[in-house]
Records
---
Amino acid sequence: MYTSVYSTPTVTLVGGDEMPVVGFGTWDLSGQAVTDSVRTALQAGYEHIDTAEGYENETEVREAITDHDREDLFLTTKVLPKHLNYNAVIESCENSLNRLGTDYVDLYLVHWPNPAISIRETMDAMDTLHERGMIRNVGVCNFSSHQLRAAQHVSDVPVATNQVEFHPWLPQTDLRAYCDREDIALIAAAPLGRTRVLADDVIRDIADARARSPAQVVLRWELEKGAATIPKSSSSEHIGENVDLFGWELTDEEIARIDDIEHEERIYWMTDMSDDTYGIPE
Ligand SMILES: NC(=O)c1ccc[n+]([C@@H]2O[C@H](COP(=O)([O-])OP(=O)(O)OC[C@H]3O[C@@H](n4cnc5c(N)ncnc54)[C@H](OP(=O)(O)O)[C@@H]3O)[C@@H](O)[C@H]2O)c1
C-alpha cells in the first residue's frame, strides 16, 4: 500500500500525488527574511512551500531548503502571465528550477489567466514540462469556473489545483462546488485576508472561547471546508501557530457560525495589465 512521505495531513491530487494541506506562503518576503522564515517554517513542521517567479525570491527559498531532503518537501512555483506562450512557459520553468536548485517542482501554477495568450498554448507547454518530469502536477491560480473549464478542455494533463483567495469573508461557494465536482484541489491564497479577517467579531469570539488564536480559527475553518491553505508570516510565533491545526477541530456549530458571517470582502485584485506582469504595453 502507498504511504505518504509527509507527516502532516495531505489531500490526494487528481494524478495521485499527495499535497500537504498546510503550506507556507512567501509572497512579499525577500532577502534574508524569506530564507529565515522558510527555515523556521521547515523546523516548525511545514512540508509545503509556495513561491512564484513573480515573487523574485526563489533564490532565497533555495538557501532555506538546500539542506532539506527534497523528497520530503512539496514545492510549488508559478509562471507569470506575461510568460504564458509555449516557449516562455518552458523557459520560465527552467529558470525557476535553476533558481530553486531542484530538478522538479511538485506543482507548477499559471499565476493569473492572460486573455491575450491562448490557454491551449500554455497547457501544451505544461504537458511538455510534465512529460519531461520537470513538474509533477499542473495547476492554475485565480481562475473562474469558466476559465477552469476551458483549461481542462484543452489540456492533456489534468488541472490539479486552483489557488484563489479564500477565507471567511470570501467563501467562494460556487467555485468550491465546481472544484469539488471536478476533483480540483482548492488552495486558499491570502487565507488570513492579509490579517483583516482576524478582526471579525465571530472569529474573535470563537477564538476566545476555544483559547485558540483568530488565525488558527480561520485556517482550521478553511481545512474543514476541504481547502488547502498557505498562510504567510515572518514571525516565528505566528509560523508555529499557523501549522498547529491538527488534533483539534471546530464544532459543527462553530463552522455554521463562520459560514453565516455576512461580511464579504475581497482582499486582493488582479494587478493592472502592465508590461511587467502581462507583457501588454500601454
Ligand atoms: N496565486 C496568487 O495570486 C496569490 C495571491 C495572494 C497570495 N498568494 C499566496 O498565499 C500566501 C498567503 O497570502 P498573503 O501572504 O497574501 O497573506 P495572508 O497569509 O493572508 O496574511 C499574511 C499576513 O498575516 C500576518 N499573520 C500571519 N500569521 C498570523 C497570525 N497567526 N496572527 C496574526 N497575524 C498573522 C502576517 O504578519 P506577520 O509576518 O507579522 O505574521 C502577514 O501580515 C502568499 O504568501 C502567497 O504564497 C497567492
Note: The mean pLDDT is 96.
---
Amino acid sequence: MMDTILQIRQLEKSFGRRKIIDKISFDVQAGEVFGFLGPNGAGKTTTLKMVMGFLQPDGGDIVINGFDLKRHYETAMGSLGGIVENPELYQDLSGRVNLKMYARLHDGVTNDRIMEVAAMVGMQGRLDEKVKKYSLGMKQRIGLAQALLHRPKLLILDEPTNGLDPAGIRELRDILKRLAHEEHVAVVVSSHLLSEMQLMCDRVAIIHLGRLLGVRTIRELTDLSRQTTVYRILTPEAQAAAEILRPAYGEGIGELSEQGLDLEVATDRVPAVIRLLAMKGVDLYGVTRLESSLEDAFLQVTGGGLNIE
Ligand SMILES: Nc1ncnc2c1ncn2[C@@H]1O[C@H](COP(=O)(O)OP(=O)(O)OP(=O)(O)O)[C@@H](O)[C@H]1O
Ligand SMILES: [Mg+2]
C-alpha cells in the first residue's frame, strides 16, 4: 500500500521576473528516502523552503499528509519536521536542555520521547555535554533529533551532509534510512551529488534550472546496461587498441593520448572490452572510470533511453 505523505503539484516561484521554479510536480511516500538532486542554483532550497512554509509559492499546491498547505497550514505543518542549513542551537546549553526547550514548542513531548529521539540519532550517551563542544556531525544529529520530537510523518533536510566528513555522512545516511525504512517516515534530502544520493535514497528527482527532469528509482539510475560512462584505458598502444575496438565500439572511441584512449561504453560491456584487448595482446596498465559529472547524469536520464514524463 502506497501512503503518499507529500504531494507537490505544478509548483511555481519567481523572484522578480526570473522564474526559479517552473511547474514542479512529484510525490513522496511514507517509508522512503527521496532525493532531490540538482546542481547549485537548480532550485532545491527554494522548493524545500516552500514545502516547509518559509516561502510562499506563486502557484501550485503542496499537500502534506493529506492537508493542503494553503488551506490547512497548521495541520499540514504538524506532520512536518525540517531543517534548512544549520540547526539553531544554544551553544552554552547541553544537547538535552536544547531538546527540552524545543520540546516545549510542541504538545505532549515527554522526557521518554526525548531519550527515544536521542537514541534514534545515536546521541543518548552525549546529551549532557554543551553544544559548543559537539562536532558538526553531533550538532546536526541534535538538530535532527529536534525535528523528530513531535513524530513528523515527513522529514525535510536541505543538503544535510554539507560539511560532514565521510564517517559523519555514513552515520547520517544510516540514521535517515532507518527512519524511513523502520519508522516509516517520508524523508526528503537534497544534494548536488549523485554518488551520495545513490547510497542514501530509494528514489531521486532530478531538478535543473527550476524544472524537474524526472523521477527515478536508484535501481533505474544505476542499471549498468542502460548507462554509458567514459572509461580511460591506460595503454602505450592507444592506436592499436582503437583499431581493435573500432568494429564493435567505434562510436564510443574518444580521445587518444600517450596514456591511452578514452572509450564511452555501457558499464556492463567493460569486461568484454578488457578481454578483447588482452586477447589481442595489447598491454593494459589499467582501466579507470572518468568521474561522471552531474551533467552526464542529466544526459543519462534525459537522453540515455529513459523516457521523461
Ligand atoms: N531570495 C531570492 N531572491 C532572488 N533570487 C533568489 C532568491 N533565493 C534564491 N534565488 C535564486 O534562485 C535560484 C535557485 O536557488 P536555490 O537556492 O533554490 O538553488 P539550490 O538548488 O538550493 O542551489 P545550491 O545547491 O547552491 O544550494 C538561484 O538562481 C538563486 O540565485
Ligand atoms: Mg540550496
Note: Residues 4-221 form a domain with the Rossmann fold fold (CATH 3.40.50.300).
